[in-house]
Specification:
alpha/beta; Rossmann fold; 10-stranded mixed β-sheet; 22% strand; UspA; UspA domain-containing protein; Rossmann-like_a/b/a_fold
Length: 292
């Protein structure tokens, strides 16, 4: 491992006995293997011999026999139980299976998963494309927002790319249209607006290059890095971009606001949660979360 510290040492997967239980557990054990992490499987509900036997049967199918796996059974409110478990078990990554709408084949995040992404103290991975057999991760998109936690998120994206063997990492800088501050009325103002756009893109790319420069070369080896500036609404734009380029994984900063107004007026990650383009990895600064 080229990193001094593994950011995801302990993973929690909260499971239900749904039709996708087997495929979700097989995918989760695969992720734990690549991250060299301990895996805790938590079911919020009654423990029965039938349920226990089913989990044992599924775990016996995994290709990774040396994993450190613990199965827990607890009763109570799912949000409270999982949130508490993330704190008491020092969880670094919570994995949640996202659901698929029938007929129109779009993925969405249910109310429990949405609340957990806001409440938990750790990073979150929303799976919409679990697979029984491994499908290699070829392309990762990560946000390059001008925000305090962005360097942490970009560093995590490089770690994930290395762990999963992804050869392509695209850092997307979303630039708000209002920053152009030029009203296009004719060819002259159009030219001026385009010049402003190029300057903004250059400024954002330079800022991101400074972040990437601080990442050890060994962590970037074998990864093709691309900077991409896009104009539009934050959250929506990067989600659309990830869908267009068919990214296998989208990595984002955790939402920085959780107040009532932020729930009324969607922002950033809420646009993505409403229509997931691909698997979503939300990076949360655990230290900051525990000190809020």
């Amino acid at each position: 491992m080229i990193y001094k510290n593994r950011p995801f040492k302990t993973i929690l997967f909260g499971f239900a006995f749904s039709p996708k239980l087997e495929i979700n557990i097989l995918e989760t054990t695969r992720i734990a293997h690549f991250f060299k992490a301990k895996l805790i499987l938590l079911h919020v509900g009654a423990k029965t011999p039938e349920k226990e036997a089913k989990i044992t049967t599924i775990l016996n199918q995994t290709a990774y026999k040396n994993l450190d796996i613990e199965v827990k059974w607890e009763k109570g409110d799912p949000i409270t139980v999982i949130t508490t478990a993330c704190k008491t078990s020092n969880i670094d990554l919570l994995i949640i299976g996202a659901l698929q709408k029938e007929k129109i084949y779009q993925f969405y995040v249910g109310s429990i998963a949405r609340k957990l992404t806001r409440k938990v103290c750790c990073s979150v991975l929303l799976l919409i494309k679990p697979s029984k057999e491994r499908i290699p991760c070829k392309s990762i998109v990560v946000n390059g927002l001008d925000a305090p936690d962005t360097p942490l998120t970009i560093n995590a994206a490089f770690y994930i790319a290395n762990a999963l063997g992804a050869p392509q990492l695209t850092i997307v800088e979303e630039i708000l249209q209002k920053n152009i501050q030029v009203s296009v009325q004719d060819d002259k103002t159009l030219k001026k607006a385009n010049i402003v756009k190029e300057r903004l893109k250059h400024r954002e790319e330079q800022r991101v290059r400074e972040i990437v420069k601080d990442i050890p070369d060994a962590c970037k080896e074998g990864i093709k890095v691309k900077n991409q500036g896009i104009f539009g609404k934050r959250g929506y734009s990067i989600g659309h971009y990830a869908e267009i380029v068919r990214a296998d994984l989208l990595v984002m900063n955790a939402p920085s606001k959780t107040g009532i107004l932020d729930r009324i007026f969607p922002h950033d990650i809420e646009y993505i949660l409403s229509d997931l383009p691909t698997d979503l990895f939300i990076i949360r600064n655990r230290f900051d979360s525990e000190n809020k």
